[in-house]
């Protein structure tokens, strides 16, 4: 297991000790180390199903369970419990995967709901573009050449 995965595992074991009544049903303690392992294997282009597993686990961590960090006042997506730099890496990898399930997840409203701040600024437009492509719709900010031309004087 990588150093990052070991560190994540330790962090997840300690959170309930310092926490509140939250984090009782949260899946992060088991799934985040698995996500990290599949992220590294998929990123190295291993052909062992790791990218499929990465996408599946990523999707399982999107909902708000009863996950909270010490400074949160309300539940947050399970993905937010882990390391924020790792989260950025996970999103970056997901945005580059070309499998239908990865594209479906990346283009989903549920995925966009976990993005905030700079991550939202960078990836929401890309996700919306992927959603339009998935639905077969033309980008809405482009119009045909005919409607962009200025009317000619008679």
N-to-C SSE string, H for helix and E for strand: HHHHHHHH
Shape: globular
**Strand composition percent:** under 5%
Largest sheet: none
The end-to-end span amounts to 75 Å
Structural class: mainly alpha
Radius of gyration in whole Å, from Cα? 19 Å
Number of helices: 8
Architecture overview:
- There is one protein chain.
- The protein has 8 helices and no strands.
- The longest helix is centred in the last third of the chain and has 19 residues, at 117-135.
- The protein is 58% helix and 0% strand.
- It is mainly α and 154 residues long.
- Helix 2 (28-43) runs antiparallel to helix 3 (50-60).
- The protein is globular.
- The protein starts with a helix and ends in a 6-residue tail after the last helix.
- The protein has a domain at 3-98.
Compact overview of the structure:
Helices cover 58% and strands 0% of the residues.
Topology, please?
Blueprint: H1 3-18, H2 28-43, H3 50-60, H4 84-96, H5 100-106, H6 109-112, H7 117-135, H8 145-148
Helix pairs in contact: 1-2, 2-3
